[in-house]
Design a protein that fits this description.
mainly alpha; 3 helices
Length: about 70
Amino acid sequence: MQTFAKLTAILALTGLAACEGSDLERGALGGVGGYAIDRATGGDGTVGAAVGVAAGVTCDDLTPGVCN
């Protein structure tokens, strides 16, 4: 249950922070959020950070209505 609470808090904070900004800012926030989630679930953080950066940078290109 504690892991679920951590994940929810991380997703909420990085999701709200990433609402506005450039691709670089969203990529940085995605990397931080991905790293934190990967570490919270027992990973070493590298895969989560890479996925988070990729998602943050391409978010507005793939889903223009979601990330503006």
